[in-house]
Amino acid sequence: MCGIVGAIANRDVVPVLVEGLKRLEYRGYDSSGIAVLGADGMRRVRRTGRVAEMEAAATAAHFSATLGIGHTRWATHGGVTEANAHPHVSEGVALVHNGIIENHEEQREKLLALGYTFESQTDTEVIAHLMHHHLKEGDDLLVALQRTVKELTGAYALAVVSQAEPDRLVAARMGCPLLVGLGEGENFVASDVSAIVQATRRVIFLEEGDTAELRRDGVQVYDEHNLPVARGEHVSDVSLASLELGPFRHFMQKEIHEQPRALGDTIEAAIDAAGFPATLFGKNAEQMLSGIEGVQIIACGTSYYAGLTARYWIEAIAGLPCSVEIASEYRYRAAHANPKHLIVTISQSGETLDTMEALKYARSLGHTHTLSICNVPESAIPRASELVCYTRAGAEIGVASTKAFTTQLVALFQLTVVLGKLRGRIDAAQEAGYLEQLRMVPGSVQHALNLEPQIAVWAEHFAGKANALFLGRGLHYPIALEGALKLKEISYIHAEAYPAGELKHGPLALVDAEMPVVVIAPNDSLLEKVKSNMQEVRARGGELFVFADQDSNFTASEGVHVIRTPRHAGVLSPIVHTIPVQLLAYHTALARGTDVDKPRNLAKSVTVE
């Protein structure tokens, strides 16, 4: 959730730190700060609120330095105050921290006994004091860090500088993402490549337990045993253009409109292969996938809803039992393991802590068949999985996921067809048919995007409401869930979603003239059932907002508003029907004046429990 950036160079790094923090704003935060070492010694500035406020304070104080660290904080331990903001300092040592230290109270008691005083309510301050304690005992900065992390229980990404050693920056990683950026005469550390892409695209991804030493002329990484180790260098494909708004008002709007391109890029490999080879998921995929007896999907939030959609596909098309688990629940449940089931983890960032820990738990139970569906190459979850499918959505900045979700659906559909082929349930003609349906999706999505002006009119009505209800059936029930989530995330309207058939089992009690009801009503086998559910709503005075297909037999009437998406897209209809609910949420938030890209209390990459 929090963001880290650090730099050591022969030039002023303050602009690099500030720009890096601005590019990390999408992850969610409530305060920010930098600490730098220059001709004036160590200087620090922190502010609650936006990075721009901290930047203004640094500019007014004429900050300039060749070594520094910066941070955006999302409060966990302690409230949103300047004292709790990072960097934290202990007598010449400054550090920034992502994650949670579980044994911080124990360490705090030990440090109080040693005479240290605490200025904040955070777990992070204990790390700063531990660092100072080890430096006072004679360790250099790197050894002090390596000794300190051995005393910590929990998750952390750390970047540390010391006034006594102005020619190096040290870093450590356990459970939270951290990478090193490589430059010429300068090097960087960051929690996300977007923070340093303006300076370099050459990166090293630190592994669990790694520590690193950065100097102006080089970088050395050490493994969990403090032994020097070579980590592979990668060239990031994140571009500055993907991190800029262009002609759009918000990143969410931009990313909604990027979906035809993102979907096209994600299906490109299948198009090039003229089918669905198992190698879409890795060179050893066919051997692994041939013998599985079921699929277990593990994810959080929007990715969980992608998994719920995939369950319908996998069971109906591939003929395999499929369960879908919320990662934060699965990891603490006494689960029964079937080693012949495929574990599928889904994460936009590839760093979602609950999903990562759930994967570790599944492996501890004996699951060896693992597949990660992810949008960020070389992130932690793909590296921990046997098979990987990258969704190729491109950088997603808006906190509310859009293009990552629809590309996850494409990846899961491709997995479904591969499994069906391996089980002999899909012949060549059916495979060609599925490929043609997939080929049509980007165009259908573009047609759905053209409905934006009509949806914006609906949004004006929703903006004045306090509640909303979303209904769907079958494949489209998860899309109703996703629509409700998007609306509550960015407009702060309370929204719930139900299978339409459940109306009479409770939710109907909520329906009145003040409760708008959104219905996902494609022209599929359940359409007549959905129509009956709609009549139940109208009979109670509820107002209906229906997303129907072009070929559905629907007419608008008093209390029934209808927008028609393209012709029914068959089994891939959930992808097309996602677009209208995204646009409805976006324009409702716009009408209400909320912060669309950075909704309150939320973060993009959830790297704490």
What does this molecule look like?
The protein is α/β, with parallel strands linked by helices and 609 residues long. Helix content is 36%, strand content 24%. It contains 18 helices and 25 strands. The strands form four sheets. An eight-stranded antiparallel β-sheet has the order 3-2-4-1-10-9-11-15, covered by helices on one side. Helix 15 packs across helix 18 (573-592). The longest helix is centred in the C-terminal third of the chain and has 22 residues, at 428-449. It starts with a strand and ends in a 17-residue tail after the last helix. 56% of the residues are buried.
Quick gist of this model?
The protein is of the alpha/beta class. 36% of the residues lie in helices and 24% in strands. It starts with a strand and ends in a 17-residue tail after the last helix.
What is the share of helical residues?
25-40%
Secondary-structure-derived class = alpha/beta
Task: Specify the oligomeric state.
Answer: single chain
What is the mean predicted local confidence, pLDDT? 91
Q: What are the segments in which pLDDT stays under 50 over at least 5 consecutive residues? A: none
Biggest sheet record: 8 strands, antiparallel
Rg, rounded, reads 25 Å
Shape: globular
Number of helical segments with 4 or more residues = 18
User: What is the end-to-end distance?
Assistant: 10 Å
